[in-house]
Amino acid sequence: MLKCLVPLKKNLRDRASQRLIGLLLVLGPSLAFAELPTMEAPSRGEGSGLIETIKNYAYDGGILLGLLIALLSFLGVAWHSLTVYADVQNQRKTWKDLGAVVGIGALLVVIIIWFLTKAAAIL
């Protein structure tokens, strides 16, 4: 007789835990009185209207994109330099090849940063 009550007891416990979890999911967000952080103004200021504010945020996005391009170019040069260094260690290339790759790569990164600086002034 007790064996037939065990599934019923387990079923009631499962339903009670499901209702408790549901109640916590419904009331949980309202109990956490956290405030969202305020949005920071763009680097050029908020501007006099909505369009000018959007332009200022777009400018900040363009600067961020330029930094990403500079980072990717630096990482590309570093990766290629490491592969050439591995080829030097395996005696497939010479130290002169590594010097050329590092020198041209450094010049390329400097030129990219210079162009991005000029582009930021145009924006």
Automatic annotation (TrEMBL):
Q: Which ranges does the record mark as transmembrane? A: 63-86, 98-117
Q: Mind listing the UniProt keywords for this protein, alphabetically?
A: Membrane, Transmembrane, Transmembrane helix
- One Pfam family hit: DUF2976
InterPro entries according to UniProt = Integr_conj_element_PFL4702
- The answer, when asked if Transmembrane is one of the entry's keywords, is yes
Give the superkingdom in one word.
Bacteria
What is the designated name of this protein? Integrating conjugative element membrane protein, PFL_4702 family
Q: Which organism is it from?
A: Pseudomonas lini
Q: What is the lineage of its organism?
A: Bacteria, Pseudomonadati, Pseudomonadota, Gammaproteobacteria, Pseudomonadales
